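Quick note —
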Amino acid sequence: MADGDDNSDARFHFIKSGDQANSALDWDHGPDHVRKAIGEALNARNVAFLLGAGCSSLVVDKQERGISTMAPLAKEFCKHPGEPQIDDDFNPIPAPAWALDKADVELLGKLGASLEDAEYSRNLERLMELLYSLRFVYRRSKKATHEASGKRVESIIQKVKSFLWERCTNGEFANGDTSVLDLYEAFYRKLVLRDRSLPRPWVFTTNYDLFNERAMDRLGLPYANGFSGVVERRFNPATFRYALAEQLDLTSRKWSAVDGFVYLCKLHGSISWTEDDHGLFPIPELWPQDAPSKVMIYPTPAKQNSSLGSPYADLFREFQSRVVREQSVLITAGYAFGDEHLNHIIYQALTIPTFRLVIFADPDSNGEIAKLRALNDPRVWIIGGDGLPGGSPAHYFRTIVDHFMPQRQTERIDDAVRLVIESMGSRKETDDE
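Predicted structure written out below.
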């Protein structure tokens, strides 16, 4: 059966100006159309990507190979304590260290925060906002009863951190499966095709994991992530002003930006960041296994040195600075527009006439994505929908990398060679018949 026959019923959408009625594309010719459009967008003067939790999640054969998105994580953590689990030999299975106990649930219930509410069971950041607010109040209260409640709240905060630490450091990806890492490597291979005469691309992410760093390290790509130093690396926002260049002419001191250089900005922190009391630069970067109890999480308004202080203020400032420039393109993937801080900045950018927003998401999504589509703005593109039969939806990171990112010349040659080989094989089969 020909490829066209396989793909004839599969459709995805490339929506401009909010018009979904005339946006359906088939999988025979649609990817070429999107690839060309994305290639043109990547030639804009200022290009930035915003990668959300969906980019680090990869389900293959109904098994998560990466890290689940926020909703499944929140649902797992917010389960109420029940009867002990029993193994096949009828032995009790001890609960994990991060599991909530009845006292935790009772305290939150008394405070009017039911973990069954969608606000918390679908978004751990909302739960953390509540917990940090409670800690703020209890720490400043002189009531004796509040001291015990404060300790309980602190215990729940540590359980959330331990839970996320375990999910971000332990899984199939940490036990030999490279599926997600391979995907990130393929993404960066295609991203660095950008003309060296243009400013280097920026990758912003809300994820805590290290897939971005590991992928670029494996590819040998130089990148700036806001930290300086070698033996003792510390956060210094001034490094975002630096560029890596090579000297072209020793006599005339001519310099040129190094190909493949990338700026990486982790807006919500990282499992490799920790805190100490070292003056102006209190955020060191360590190997994750060196400081699991101090992993930095969530830029919530109630958090010490949160989105109003370093490092988060510096990171959000970089995001705002990049997307509000003239001739800027922001491409979002795996991001459900659930962060008000970022959404506000994106809406600010839309006041710039030369700004373009490319969203990879389900076109039928509700919330902010529906609002953006309702703007009927030709500068807002929404790409997503059904994937190839048996494959991921069109707006999933794997599909974006495999089918919509511009191809390298070597990839085009590889594809051509593969088609020749397949053609030769089919001819041989015909001759044999």
